[in-house]
Amino acid sequence: MRERKKGLYARKLSCRTYSLFCVLNFLFCPSQGLYEEALIQFEKIKDTDFQAMYQLGVMHYDGLGTKEDPEKGVEYMKKILNSDSPKARHLKFAAAYNLGRAYYEGCGVKQSTEEAERLWLIAAQSTLGMLYSASVPKDLKKAFFWHSEACGNGNLESQGALGVMYLYGQGICKNTKAALECLREAAERGSIYAQGLLVEYYYNRKFYSTAAAVAKRITKNDDIDTLAKMTDCLPTYVAKGVAMAAFYLARCLQFGLGVQQDQAAAKKYYSQVTIAEDLLLLIHRGR
């Protein structure tokens, strides 16, 4: 058995679960007593809240607020990874990473480097897709492959990325039907970036009223950080989606395309584009 390193990856919490942590002062004063109280509360909601189940897996594996029980921690991570529930999708990659580590170290399961490799590949799929999309030189065929793998495992970010690649023929033959299927499903699951791309698609095809209606829904909430936490997407892509929606809504309002012409409202949404672009710059600078 390999030497075990304590400390599973404790993922960001949803608003609901994070509120529970704050009430318990769990994050700011991690005493054993508060871990125990957190454990009790998570046990109460684990059957309806996958993030609570995830935190329980971490706590049992590392012995936080309870006796160290790696087998039980692994059991919770497997439940998340194998779940068909849409509510578990955003946790699958973190669970796969943790399970890979457990198999690599032989802690809570029989040691298996092969299984660790398989699980770590699942955890890295979306990241690899983005790497090959942005690297110099780009390798869009590899990017498409890894985004496809990640999408098959429920990754929302990669589903939107596949829509873009199909739409513009990047790393794959152009396929508008497949692109719209990917973007619409990703949009329904909460991807702001996919929603913004659909607004652009509708506008360019002169479906102005549809473009404006979708854009209005997106721009109702321009709090990038909150939207990123709610959808579990990268703030960079959330900001891009909001900026696209605001820009095309402003164009519709400026020229009276699909909506009543309103210059004042158009100016307001153009300013929202600028704010979103400024946020993108801040994100890229790491502020």
UniProtKB/TrEMBL annotation:
Q: Mind telling me which InterPro entries this protein's record contains?
A: LRP2-binding, Sel1-like, TPR-like_helical_dom_sf
The alphabetized UniProt keywords are: Cytoplasm, Repeat, TPR repeat
Q: Subcellular location, in the record's words?
A: Cytoplasm
Question: What are the GO cellular component annotations?
Answer: cytoplasm
As given in the record, the signal peptide range reads none
Recorded hits in Pfam families, A to Z, give: Sel1
According to its UniProt entry, the function of this protein is described as: May act as an adapter that regulates LRP2 function.
Q: What name goes with this protein? A: LRP2-binding protein
Phylogenetic lineage: Eukaryota, Metazoa, Chordata, Craniata, Vertebrata
